[in-house]
Write a structure and sequence with these properties.
Two copies of one chain form a homodimer. Chain A is α/β, with parallel strands linked by helices. The first copy, chain A, has eleven helices and 17 strands. In chain A, strand 3, helix 3 and strand 4 form a beta-alpha-beta unit.
Chain lengths: ~375, ~375
């Protein structure tokens, strides 16, 4: 495979450095054009090497989805991190430990109970910064922008000794709609939700310096972010088939794939068996509800060309079943046992999580193949 | 949580040692009653500590699904291993390296091309043992029991210098049917398929000392294994909701769970949000097609009691959404932020793979909590 070690052991995770760099550059230019700050989400890649490329400055700002991410990236020099999953009391010790080591780690919450716990922990070891989570699309957590609890929580935090830093939201619903107009509409829902909540906090005499929004589709489509101070996004670093299916990228932009080897055939069924099953690809079937169902992934040649209509139609733990998509006119290609292939993932976050390293196709054709470690856990 | 550290960081993977021991004992007694050998599959647990409990003798025999499993378990003393995924030429170097270190590692294949590659590698560094893979239910790989290629492959291996050791099959279809009678029928399909193939090899003057079958449901339900020399099974060590859904175990037998913490509520929607999303639970929805759809898992109290009708109805990367199952008469329980819960997985192999350690509830109530490492990769 071009740019990769010839004795590659499959399945393994492959990142195309040139495509990744183009994706990073595209998002950076988008955000700069909107005139707001950018806080990349590092949960997709979970890699210090890739964080160095996503963050213009390794000091941050950055977003994470687990405290282990915060710990690893703080150790690598990131000093401004938002942990963007609702905090629990039992995690505040790790938050304070990271803050004591010089990392400005902020948390999010959406209830008075959490706010009381954070205020109590702040009284002990210094003010913990908090964003109040706002719901903009009914998909997950957060308070409605007009909820009375926002002001209640604001007072608990501000008067209880925590650092009330602002509000944040995430339009997970933007993944369920297709096209720039629909994504722009979700971006406006994000903006309106947090700006409304921020205005209410300020009207109540409470501080709200940070107004944070974001998802990859809304970040790429937003037209006006008046009142917003920063955008968060993560999966854009690789993109994936789900993002391509909603028009946030082209299939050719996808920088992540799983390298796999043909291990057998069932010509009676039109199957080609490979050594990437769901343990490698993940069980994510995010394209199942889209206009084009890509099965467990779309198949490429080893050098990255799409094999027309060949998808992963089934997956066991260590076996993938390749077949032509239903209704395809093509004939299955000749792919003898031992043939190297690559598979584009439905969901980059889920597929990358199945591996502990990235095999890098270098952007510089003359460069040596690289392997970048990846971590998981909590 | 009883038997676990009070400062547990969630989500984390929990194993109930007493339930696991009972599952191991149940399977051992079943196989002994059938009068055949047992080759436990170590792919579910991927843990040296748990392999020590699954294998009556740490020397083996054992089954694995990746060469990394073979390497880790060989280093821990296992000396008789079947790598039960179709071999590719590029993996033969690692196979030979393990064999050179004293591990009797056998491979499987189902094509003349693979057989030629294995024979060629055997000529170089000593005979590699091979089982020919037989298909018994059309679910995955393998040759039909009456396929002419079986004899062709047998000759390539035997005369080419490999060690033709026998035949194997796996009735993945047994996971799709419910009840002991249906599982016993699949066990008989497994038996008949490999015994037919073995008889044909022997009639052609070829050796076939090993006749290997197995899956957890068929191993637990088989009534007669005449002609079979060994059974393989793996998921029985923990069991899971899929196995309970087809009647292979009771929900109370399930030894694996994910500990999680309540992080918020959406009373308007009847949701309880927890810090175990699909990154912790996996995307496996194996009960979706069963009589009782358990969502992404069934919720327990921290000490292991089922909370009636509370399941994980939705999952984001680090958020799980708990709600009553559709049509449930119960009212959602009061579970404040910070409450510890546990979630039984649909598929133990998939959920365990999301973690790098087991938090053990010791069988001995007075024992200290233990943490057993777990590995992944290929």
């Amino acid at each position: 495979m071009a740019g990769l070690s010839p004795d590659l052991q499959t399945p393994c995770l492959v990142v195309d450095e040139a495509k990744m760099a183009a994706n990073i550059d595209r998002m950076a230019r988008r955000i700069a054009g909107l005139g707001v700050g950018f806080r990349p989400h590092l949960k997709t890649a979970k890699s210090v090497e890739i964080a160095r490329r996503m963050l213009p400055d390794m000091g941050g700002p950055a977003t994470v989805s687990t405290l282990r991410e915060a710990e690893v990236f703080a150790a690598a020099g990131v000093r401004d991190i938002l942990y963007a999953v609702g905090i629990t009391p039992a995690k505040l010790g790790r938050v304070q430990a990271l803050r004591a080591r010089g990392c400005d780690l902020a948390v999010i919450l959406d209830s008075a109970g959490q706010a009381q716990a954070v205020a109590a922990a702040s009284a002990g070891a210094g003010p913990i910064p908090v964003l109040i989570e706002i719901d903009c699309d009914g998909k997950r957590a957060g308070l409605a922008p007009d909820a009375a609890e926002i002001i209640e929580i604001g007072h608990i935090l501000h008067e209880g000794g925590a650092d009330l830093r602002g509000v944040m939201t995430h339009a997970g619903g933007s993944y369920d709609v297709s096209g720039a107009d629909a994504h722009a509409a979700f971006a406006e829902r994000e903006r309106r939700a947090v700006v409304t909540a921020a205005d209410r906090l300020r009207a109540a005499g409470l501080p709200c310096p940070v107004v944070s929004v974001g998802s990859t589709p809304t970040a790429l489509a937003a037209r006006d972010l008046a009142g917003v101070t920063e955008v968060r996004a993560g999966v854009y670093v690789f993109f994936d088939l789900v993002m391509a299916g909603i028009g946030a990228c082209a299939v050719d932009d996808i920088a992540l794939s799983v390298a796999t080897t043909v291990i057998g055939h069932r010509p009676d069924r039109g199957w080609i068996l490979v050594d990437a099953g769901w343990m490698a690809l993940s069980r994510d079937r995010g394209t199942a509800g889209q206009a084009v169902d890509q099965g467990y992934g779309l198949v490429l040649t080893a050098d990255g060309r799409v094999i027309p209509d060949l998808i992963v139609t089934g997956a066991n733990q260590e076996h993938g079943i390749l077949a032509l998509r239903p209704g395809a006119a093509a004939t299955p290609p000749e792919l003898p046992v031992g043939t190297l292939l690559r598979i584009l993932p439905n969901h980059a976050c889920a597929t990358a999580a199945q591996f502990d390293a990235y095999h890098v196709i270098p952007a510089d054709i003359g460069a040596a193949p690289a392997i970048w470690p990846r971590f998981g856990g909590w």
